[in-house]
Design a protein that fits this description.
The protein has about 80 residues and is an all-alpha fold. The protein is about 65% helix and about 0% strand.
Length: about 80
């Protein structure tokens, strides 16, 4: 089981937020996916934003959040906008 600390884009603050909703490992993150986790984070922390979603997806793909492919960013932005 890989620790969250070893994943790109997961710093101390993000790790604490993930732990607070029961995400303890990279396997948890990958299994649930960035969108489901983002929804859970948004319920608990209303101020999480699109960058958090990018960071989660980047962690799953092992890519820095600002280097995600454009089509992935568009999909995630549409998803985030749909939650408002």
């Amino acid at each position: 089981m890989e620790k969250l600390d070893n994943m790109l884009n997961i710093g101390k603050e993000m790790k604490a937020k993930l732990f607070s909703i029961g995400i303890r490992s990279s396997e948890d993150l990958i299994r649930l996916g960035s969108k489901e986790i983002f929804v859970q984070l948004k319920e608990r922390y209303p101020n999480v934003c699109l960058v958090h979603l990018y960071a989660l997806q980047g962690a799953i793909l092992n890519v820095e959040y600002d280097k995600l492919p454009d089509e992935v960013k568009v999909d995630l932005k549409q998803f985030s906008d749909g939650l408002k």
